[in-house]
Model the fold of this input.
Amino acid sequence: MKFCAKSLNFEQSSDCVVIGIYENTTLSTNAKKLDEATAHYLSDLLKTGDFKGKLAETLLVHTPNQPFTRLLLVGCGKAPLNETQYKKIIKAVVQTLKSTTTQHIHLLLNDLEIKDRNEYWAVRFAIESISDTLYNYDEFKSTKAEATQLAKFCFNSENLAETEKAIQHAQAVALGVKFAKNVANCPPNVCNPAYLAELAKELDSEYSQISTTIVDETQMAELKMNSYLAVSRGSENPAYMSIIEYKNAPNPDAKPIVLVGKGLTFDSGGISIKPSAAMDEMKYDMGGAASVYGTMKAVAELQLPINVIGVLAGCENMPDGNAYRPGDILTTMSGKTVEVLNTDAEGRLVLCDALTYVERFEPECVIDIATLTGACVVGLGHINTGLLSKDDQFVEQLLNASKQAHDYTWHLPMNEEYQDDLKSNFADLANVGSRAGGAITAGIFLSNFTENYTWAHLDIAGTAWQSGAAKGATGRPVPLLTQFLINKSS
Ligand code: BES
Ligand code: MN
Ligand code: ZN
Done:
């Protein structure tokens, strides 16, 4: 898909011009200009009363004797719009046009009023929404979806430089989201830890700024990553931890920002096995790693002038005769011991060793991203990612990026008092606490392994994928992470 920015001009031909109409059907600035340029075709059309301007309502008409072949009216409801309403409008446009023979679309939507957002964001969200709407995963279907003929969207703009920048940023975010979705949707018999490592290596061959190293189980044993290895022991598919190093800071010794993604390519629960309902969705337990992968892709596409390290902590949690068990005591890479009370709380056991491992990079800061707890889904639902950190300034930066990118997160508390819930009679820590505050105690568990750097934890259990008829990965929180890194670059 191509995108372009151009100033308002009806002489140039296009296959379709798209104009937004609010519910009161008074003409916007662009609509007025269009109306004048078309001998009041638009106002005559609106006079029929057929088109009401309800949010995401569409009316596609063919326009003989005009420089454009079609005119698409899209309803915008009431001004000002919020981001979700705006994205719905764009989605309606794409859905109306995607199965037509339209190739070149001219969007005259820059006069829509989105609350607290300028033209830059209107273009960003439009492209992100276009990409989202056209996304389809049919890798494993015998009959593939028909390719759309849509080829190019042009945004009319009064600030071409800003619009070009928005196009560039949005395309990178959209590509990162798409890559994250593809790997997350991939079935667990194909997407195993070795597959994640292959993807990490592909980034190395594709970008000169990226070098990837793979840590296998033998090396993990040498590093004393016993906790990570314990989770992997019940699986026939060996664990691999991929280290994707992106170096592009003007000062090559600049401290890196480190992203650590939980990469459980399947989480059966292990010996504390999960109920079978919806267990297929535990292929998405590598959503954190998928988002790190997608973000590295976006960063490399944007050539951001920073140093970033992405870690994909690939592993599979299965029950077999060699599997780790409840009651086992593991000595983590940090030296701290953990009593396993539930083998289904495996993510934190993989992450604690990965988080100790990354100390060697002397990071500026570390963010781990994990589908860590069902409790986070109970608390926040599928709208907000849970954010946990003890560093208020870091929290501020992440919340800011989250708001900018329209990728919601909610800050959860981390008082020291929660630590009591993880007491064990036999080891330094238990791997689970009581049911109460499960998303927080999971974060608290990790905090015991991140004392040597600035750290935040994103629990994406509720946001990494959708269930039901529209089951599929969301690519979240690639927009948030990429925005955070864009902000860090300027
Ligand atoms: N991957 C799951 C968390 C999860 C569950 C994410 C459902 C999305 C939907 C994680 O490994 C897990 O099983 N966590 C347990 C922890 C519990 C045993 C303390 C959970 O949330 O039930
Ligand atoms: Mn689990
Ligand atoms: Zn899990």
Q: What stands out?
A: The chain has 14 helices and 19 strands. The longest strand covers residues 257-267. The pocket of manganese (II) ion (ligand 2) is lined by residues 267, 269, 344, 346 (CB under 6 Å).
